[in-house]
């Protein structure tokens, strides 16, 4: 028998399909394929990492914007509560009295043809329950002369304790 046997049948067909030769040539043919697979996997992982980082950055930005929106909404609601408090009828009345205003008299209206409808009336004298706002504190210094001339000091608000009634402005155009 010879050291090298001839293969027959099925084994011969399998031997023809397998490369014959040294073991190093099979590895040399596989090296580019392995490098290609490693590069594709590495590139895919790097791309996935970059995509994940971009999504996380967007998530942080979204959370910051939600917090900012919540803060601005709270500020808006606080300001709206302040506006509502200042617009309440009792607050308006209190502020008007602090400024020295009194309720108006009967109104008169002008018709389109120029005639007056209604009878204009003067504002009523302030009630005894109403007290004017105290005058602002004066800075210590020289005192003004006791009797200034009427033209030198105009009055900004009427004296609510006097019995004078402020005349209503004429709306008739006369």
Number of helical elements: 3
Mean pLDDT across all residues, rounded? Answer: 76
CA(first)-CA(last) distance:
148 Å
How would you classify the helix and strand content by structural class?
mainly alpha
Oligomer: single chain
Main sheet, how many strands, which sense, barrel?
2 strands, antiparallel
Show unreliable segments. Answer: 148-167
Percent of residues in helices comes to 40-55%
The overall strand count is 2
Strand order of the largest sheet: 1-2
Shape: rod-shaped
Strand content: under 5%
Strand and helix order: HHHEE
Give the C-alpha Rg: 49 Å
What descriptors fit this protein?
mainly alpha; two-stranded antiparallel sheet; 2 strands; rod-shaped
Description:
- This protein has 174 residues and is an all-alpha fold.
- It has three helices and two strands.
- The protein has a two-stranded antiparallel sheet.
- Strand 1 and strand 2 form a beta hairpin.
- It is rod-shaped and about 135 Å long.
């Amino acid at each position: 028998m010879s050291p090298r046997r001839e293969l027959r049948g099925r084994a011969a067909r399998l031997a023809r399909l397998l490369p014959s030769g040294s073991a190093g040539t099979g590895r040399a043919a596989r090296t580019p394929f392995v490098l290609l697979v490693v590069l594709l996997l590495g590139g895919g992982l790097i791309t996935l990492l970059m995509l994940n980082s971009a999504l996380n950055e967007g998530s942080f930005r979204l959370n910051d914007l939600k917090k900012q929106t919540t803060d601005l909404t709270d500020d808006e609601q606080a300001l709206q509560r302040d506006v509502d408090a200042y617009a309440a009828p009792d607050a308006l009345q209190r502020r008007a009295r602090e400024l020295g205003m009194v309720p108006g008299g009967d109104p008169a209206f002008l018709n389109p043809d120029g005639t007056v409808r209604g009878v204009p009336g003067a504002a009523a004298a302030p009630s005894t329950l109403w007290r004017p706002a105290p005058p602002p504190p004066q800075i210590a210094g020289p005192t003004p002369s006791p009797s200034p001339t009427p033209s030198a000091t105009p009055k900004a608000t009427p004296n609510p304790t006097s019995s004078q009634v402020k005349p209503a402005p004429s709306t008739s155009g006369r």
